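Incident log entry.

Two folding requests arrived from the same account within the same minute. Monitoring flagged them as a possible duplicate submission, but the sequences differ. Recording both here for audit purposes.

Request one:
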Amino acid sequence: GTRALTSFSCCRAPAGGIHLRPFLKCSDSEPRSAAEAPRDSWGKLYRFTEVFFCYRCGPMVLDALIKIKNELDSTLTFRRSCREGICGSCAMNIAGGNTLACTKRIDPDLGKITKIYPLPHMYVVKDLVPDLSNFYAQYKSIEPYLKKKDESKQGKEQYLQSIEDRQKLDGLYECILCACCSTSCPSYWWNGDKYLGPAVLMQAYRWMIDSRDDYTEERLAQLQDPFSLYRCHTIMNCTRTCPKGLNPGKAIAEIKKMMATYKEKAAAA
């Protein structure tokens, strides 16, 4: 009566991460309780050796994390919400790259261990939960909303734009602020207190080119210091890692071109 079932094991990593290992195991028994899991060399941290039957677990890494939390260790902490790549809550470092746990499939390679950690170079609140306070403060600083110099019509009529102007926002507005790109950027690692990072800069560009916004020059002036914009060295990790397939690196390059024109205009005035 035994059956070969594709499964995976996991362990809590020293830095708050999780290791998933797919393997084949012949078993017709249910997993042991978490209380029976042996302790490892890290002392108080459990190393789980339970068998997870994949027909009872979804194909995504988030499914595995939810199963671990529900059945093995209720203290395991991570963010998640939509489970379909829309909210950005479950961003984490999986198998060496920043991505969303809800859209990242469990590696079927039976010889590999999938290592899961919080987003890199961020203060960790607990386990897989990074502190995004600075990231959100930077996003707030760019005033990510329409600003009009004539406020007499505010709230009284729609601000219309042409189809062509609307299309300019494609590839920008889809950003879900998951922070995968910013936390993959070495420049942001070392200058995160001053450099706005690719996610926030792409959002700044989104408002700069919106035909309905009247504060493009003021938005550019805000980025003139040596760090806010110019710490970008076109490493392009941001574009490679974006789970939505966006191109923050290109948006930053466009801001730099706009900045050059803005400075020339200011110098000639």
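Request two (distinct sequence, not a duplicate):
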Amino acid sequence: MVWVWHPEERRKKGADRLKQLYFAYGSNMDLDQMAYRCPKAEVVETVRLEGYRLTFASAGSGLATIFPEEGSHVDGVLWSLTGDCEKSLDLYEGYPDFYDKQEITVKNKGGREIKAIVYIMTKDYMQNFNPPGRSYLTGILKGCRQNQIPIEPILKAARKPPVPGQTQKSQPKKSRKAGQER
């Protein structure tokens, strides 16, 4: 008997083997948390995103996001994701309503530029600056320590006043589904 793969099935099977690079700057830097969410994800290296700043936003406890700001940078973890891992993160991040997905260019310690995807909070939610909750911040700091990323910029972002256009009083137009904490 000869088995012949239908092209559509080959695409489905191969999709899990294709790798997507993903830049994590918040709770997804935590190795244990990512092992639970995306067991097949692999750390590539620590990298830097130039021209962006970290902040915390949303109604309730603040969640990590980034926004363009000249002269700033955000350090994070570059992950290699399977197609299934990316789908899992899309659900976890509330893509496309809560976080949008964009392609960015990061640099490794040797200065090499690398294209990757990143999740950035949508404008409806980013309008509300809020400091992060204690357990959420602890997870981010744990990820920093695991990956030798400085914690000072994270702590500064958690205390820093709102970015231009953010307030602490307005409420988002949409609410995040229960059980979806970043």
